[in-house]
From TrEMBL, chains A, B, C, D:
Protein function: Catalyzes the formation of phosphoribosylamine from phosphoribosylpyrophosphate (PRPP) and glutamine.
SUPFAM superfamilies linked: N-terminal nucleophile aminohydrolases (Ntn hydrolases), PRTase-like
Highest classification ranks of the organism: Bacteria, Pseudomonadati, Pseudomonadota, Alphaproteobacteria, Hyphomicrobiales
Domain Glutamine amidotransferase type-2 residues, every copy: 15-234
Protein name: Amidophosphoribosyltransferase
Family of this protein: In the C-terminal section; belongs to the purine/pyrimidine phosphoribosyltransferase family.
Record bears the keyword Plastid: no
Amino acids binding Mg(2+): 297, 359-360
Protein species of origin: Aureimonas ureilytica
One GO MF term attached to the UniProt entry: amidophosphoribosyltransferase activity
Pathway(s): Purine metabolism; IMP biosynthesis via de novo pathway; N(1)-(5-phospho-D-ribosyl)glycinamide from 5-phospho-alpha-D-ribose 1-diphosphate: step 1/2
Length: 483, 483, 483, 483
């Protein structure tokens, strides 16, 4: 059985995190926060609450709105502090073992942690810990954090956590909870987002500002790269316990992952996407009659493109939102028919037109091929494809589920070969400097890039200890990234 | 527990139908056809197949893509002919009893029927049939058709069906199946759509053309109002067995129900919606800075409005597509917070702007109130609401789930009162003639209206036998409409 | 996959019925009554209650104690009158369609009926009704009763029911419910049991007295063969509307179906079973060292045998009660190992002994073969099998799920051949007269047998209209017996 | 909601273990072995298999025959070695976390362990391990074994395990599995049973011999108290690595826990139970007319009693085997009726008789009270109760779920008070020496008791480190015993 092919051909953010401290109904508010972060992971979610004495843990596969909103589930999560996590994949047969937050009863007391990002030396550290006698109950890199805290020789809890994180490489935006405190940390590069909010005096940590909006909370500020905040009944304390480095926020959050209504690192995502569309229009020479987005992710860039190019913006492709992630194509013979489960071209809009098609990125290229064929069959006389990011040429090791490099279309073809492969009259990607300009930078600083753009440039900002040497792929399959 | 309030405040089409004759994998193709008609009903679906000897019936609650795509389900539906139905609601405790298609083993052989529409004298006829000894196993009006066929004195099968339908009032677009034949019928007014398609020689009946597109089938023609087609191995035969009447297609299919990529009665739905937006712009005197649709249904009209008014079209409101129909608001105190489960305003786009908000219709007005409040809180300096249909003043008895008349905002308020109620600076509805113009008619012919527009005008094109007299509401609750 | 082979080799009673009138918590009491009748059918159950205005229907697959005891289920069954039914099989793909009680809204008002027994002309009558326009929604013979009531020309409700039942052949012990009344009927031969009980003034109808015991109700009397009782707020009325016939109670109820603690037709089941064992001992010439029952059904007869023969009664075979009906033998190779899923011989008790093995009946003989082999492998030096019923030679058409005649071991072998087939040193069945004596009759009256013993004698007390002629088997598969 | 009260009033063995080495279909055979050990725990089960490279883990709540027999489950358990565990309770909200076998990937390789018994210093050791940095993922004492192995400084695997077990107190009959080996260990006192079997050359470890019988395997011998056996492709090796002590097998295994067809420590359980019944008869002075067992556990002792006393053995109480553990008494008013969900007296057998009632033990006394009342209401003129064990006065800390001491009837009443409480004419318990005699010992040696009989005598054979001091109850609730 083959699952929806369209879904296989996009990148998946693996996690969203949310925590609130000092508020009745804490778990219910986490539920809402995670619901608004559902685009960062749809497969499973977990919430841990603390009622002043005990921790309570719930983990469920499925959408928040279907699992965590039952009264009975919320009643099992009492307390005025709670943190939660939503994730993209429960890979392998592990069932709910890998669903976060992770929780352990340490000798220092209980500790729960929810992690967005991915560690690049977790496997190496895990092996050391196992040699010492630690037993791992999941295949998630996040569990490594718990064991490092548990075995740290430091005396105070925050010092144990700093000790643990100092030994790790990679991306981590964490929300942690110990008795009487909620802790937020961003890795020194600030690869993944993390914001601070407030609801009637209660402090909130969340991956994106849209999770503050849903409950009417105010945005306070971004947690800084390398910052650790500790929230207690006495308020919030900030520290910068790691060696300072220049920040490298993931630029793909702007291109695709973050919700358009979120403000990330001070910039509005929808606005940046429209600006990328405008850059694309300026960099493009071809003319068309209408600008058509590949819905839904291509819509803001297409609007920006159409406004800049002064061409009509039209919904020439309709998306069926009832396709879940589990739609199975019923039979073999039908699979070969190339059915349009998710998108359908609107012939009336397209017939006889020169169509400028706008999408956010090309991963394997299989979806683009199908979309273009569909648009041609609907009568387009020319199809020009414009992509709101540079060619995706390298894998991400910081919490995004990318196919291995060899499957990325741009890693094995020139742009002309790609144009031929997806059968368009012209193909254009926004330039890397255009992308930086749209993101309010003058251009990419090649000596000290302002963002992590490794998926476009292969320029990784951290060591990749677990992935060095010949056996990367095997190692990767042994220790799944988790968020 | 309160379910998503937003969903309560829109109208729901109750049914979509699809059938295919003479093709291996018939049931699998019906699955795909129903998937593309999922917008016409999300709660439950059924498929009946005929394998040359026996009929096979499957009914499931939930989305097609989650229920009917399992190999085991399709294996229980063998045969080269199959019909299916997707429906909005399984009201009451009846479980799957009311899920169509209905099937009965009659003395003349098996007969299955799937019905889009609603009969307005089903209860009256049902009582007569019960007096005669017929036993009803559902509360659906569609079962009445089966009993009338079963008790008809006519000799040939098609005559029995004509006999049965001649006794019924209301809207019916039917797909039926008896051994060796598939039958399509539209009521004399043609209130609900029904189209004929073809896939490599096999004939198809479907509610909308988008259900042909998904499997790459060709559109042949609309079934005519009052037409009955009989599809057998020898081909298709057409008859017009009912008294001829001037057609009255449901104009709300254009406004909201049909998918924008469908062509209905020869016109493209997306195009009509854009034209309604343009009419609205022409009829409107107020100025704004940006045109913002209430997603998703307001999008095409907003595009049309923006193009006509030469104003920027912007996604100022973002929709969370992960809200299923079952999202339960977790606690009482949270319910009163007015959380933004489904929509969020994009402050960066809206702040300081005069916003022209475009939506398809106003039913109870509760959603509009919340949306407007959200847009104001995001910093809009003026909010002007434009509605792509005339005020909805009367209930539908032809297959749409409308609240009772007294709950329709427009039935109890003037436009100025409504403007005040939803707290906008100005409120405009497209005129009835504007709507007809957008639908390619010169204007509404008051003596012989070209469409059924009863929800706007109260001008019902059929008798309403079951609903006459004082006890309408009670009767309605006893016999649910079904499709 | 092969389900428990042991279970395939016994006869299954198909139904138990229970109703109570005029008591708060009616449905909860029906739940308990059905629980105590669970031995008469384990696959599915249903309850219909009447709250003075409306009927409420619940049907569930599985054991009563797992399905109907949930608070939410009982809350959906309000009212002071309720009837219920438990059944052995939901044959075919019909799901819950065939689960009783059946209910219909007739022009005369609602009517629910629960039926223990089987009609032998239901198919013939069904065809007549279909010709007339009746639509059947199940494949159960019981639905025929509803349609005959619905189409009866009689004026009063009871007369409609008498009219309906007069047209039917076979076995029926019914509990019916219409507004304001509960009705109990037994067919003129009284083939299946039905008793009247009382709990603090409220009257009860039940298949067996053990269903009265569980709730502490008093036994009033057996409903008589051919009797119809009508229970209303004014009390109970009795009538004998059918032509009088000499009664023919099913003697297999004593042998196997009824619970040992029930009194049926004035006699205690456990006592009769012990008396059968004593008859067996008297009719038997072989000697043994110990008497070992095949648990659980052989236990009472083995006790009676041991007491009469003055031999020790020993549990030489232990039964595993955790075998549900669904235990699937895991793999092919294991299936051929002949694993002891349900019974295990207790070697310490059996080794070196001459074992007299007592069982209730032999159906296909496959279980007996396995049991005997197991006892021999445990070291028995001789195995003598004694069966507490005569050879089962003919199928039952009155509500028992018997294999077709050709699969009954006794229909194709002599006793000596059977002895050889199951590999015992001697094999004895109780004589038909011995069975009658144990049942407190002097002997079988061959001209007017006091019981229905058709499964032993082939002497059927009613016409078998549906089963005459060459195509019995096909017909049977088209219309399942139901209780 | 109140669950079946009868079930609350008996003792529950918490675990059964089974392993097989060197045989295709290993997991399927474990399934069957666990099925025959289902009486030792019904709530949940787990199986771990090893396919030569990888370990595979499955855990499910429910009966083996309902969960592990699905083809899909067995296909996820490939390999020629597998071990399994069935357990009584998944206490608390831990879900499947506490279901055994436990498995961990240690630096030395994978290790799985299934444990029958209970450790009496697990909590104390756990705290030490946590201080050292170990993270526990369950509340089961068995996980402590894994951590001690993981952190052991010994070099070879078996030495690590010996090192670990040497630090633990209490009862443990273990089956472990590491790559290439299966290990069986019994604690030095041999409190719980463990036997060695063989099936066509493949070796088996199981809690009881009935688990060998089900698959036709041969019994080889009991694993000795304090013995560790290591099974590899080269055969079996035996070692006695712990300090030698005189064995103290749990005598309650004979009284109630073990299956009657098992041979334990060289003695047949059914035979010992009959001998206890005979001792009871000899120690009893009262006369009766019939001997009636409380089914099912009282049956063997009642047979022994009746044979010794030369009185008729009769099934005067019938048990309903369809009562699952989850039967919920439907309503409050019904709960007060004292319904007979599980047992019913057979009035015909009991009326007018002097009844000698035989049961295995009295825990809280609530069941005995109800049974006696039921027997009296059925017309017994005298009721004499005889119990096949001495009064149960103390809690078990070795793997049996006993109520706390204060709830044990015999810990707070004299026998005369108990007689009065359960309202019998006489009450007798077998003497402790009678019980030893029935178990083939001349008498109890008070200086060196041959069995663990702590539940009758309070004489615990091990230290109870976790339970010393004032806060027993709290500690117990923090660390559940597991098997």
């Amino acid at each position: 059985m083959d699952e929806t092919p369209f879904d296989d051909d996009s990148l998946h953010e693996e996690c969203g995190v949310f925590g609130i401290f000092g508020r009745a109904d804490a778990a219910a508010l986490v539920t809402l926060g995670l619901h608004s972060l559902q685009h960062r992971g749809q497969e499973a979610a977990g919430i841990v609450s603390f009622d002043g004495k005990q921790f309570h843990v719930e983990r469920h596969a499925g959408l928040i709105g279907d699992t965590f909103t039952k009264q009975s589930v919320l009643e099992r999560l009492p307390g005025e502090a709670a943190i939660g996590h939503t994730r993209y994949a429960t890979t392998g047969g592990g069932g709910l073992r890998n669903v976060q937050p992770f929780f352990a009863e340490l000798s220092a007391g209980g500790f729960a942690v929810a992690h967005n990002g991915n560690l690049t030396n977790a496997l190496t550290v895990q092996r050391e810990l196992q040699r010492r006698g630690s037993i791992f109950s999941s295949t998630s890199d996040t569990e490594t954090i718990l064991h490092l805290v548990a075995t740290s020789g430091a005396r105070h809890f925050n010092d144990k956590l700093i000790d643990a994180l100092s030994r790790l490489e990679g991306a981590f935006s964490l929300v942690g909870m110990a008795p009487g405190r909620m802790i937020g940390v961003r890795d020194p590069l600030g690869i993944r987002p993390l914001v601070l909010g407030e609801l009637e005096g209660s402090l909130i940590l969340a991956s994106e500002t849209c999770a503050l909006d849903i409950i009417g909370a105010d945005f306070v500020r971004d947690i800084q790269p390398g910052e650790m905040v500790t929230i207690t009944d006495s308020g919030i304390e900030s520290a910068f316990p790691f060696q300072a480095r220049r920040s490298r926020f993931c630029i793909f959050e702007y291109v695709y992952f973050a919700r358009p209504d979120s403000n990330v690192e001070g910039r509005n995502v929808y606005e940046i996407r429209k600006r990328i569309g405008a850059e694309l229009a300026r960099e493009s020479k071809e003319m068309g009659d209408i600008v058509v987005p590949v819905p839904d992710s291509g819509v803001p860039a297409a609007i920006g493109y159409a406004q800049e190019a002064k061409l009509p913006f039209e919904l020439g492709i309709i998306r069926n939102h009832y396709v879940g992630r589990t739609f199975i194509q019923p039979t073999d013979s039908i699979r070969h028919m190339g059915v349009k489960l998710k998108h359908n071209a609107n012939r009336s809009m397209i017939e006889g037109k020169r169509v400028i098609l706008v999408d956010d990125s090309i991963v394997r290229g299989t979806t683009s091929q199908k979309i273009v064929q569909m648009v041609r069959e609907a009568g387009a006389v020319e199809v020009h494809m414009r992509i709101a990011s540079p060619p995706t040429r390298a894998s991400c090791f910081y919490g995004v589920d990318t196919p291995e490099k060899s499957k990325l279309l741009a890693s094995r073809m020139t742009i002309e070969e790609m144009r031929d492969y997806i059968q368009v009259d012209s193909l254009g990607f926004v330039s890397i400097d255009g992308l930086y300009r749209a993101s309010f930078e003058p251009e990419r600083n090649p000596h000290a890039p302002q963002f992590c753009d490794a998926c476009f440039t292969g320029d990784y900002p951290t060591a990749l200890t677990d992935f060095d040497g010949a056996d990367n792929v095997r190692q990767l399959s042994m220790l799944g990234g988790n968020g």
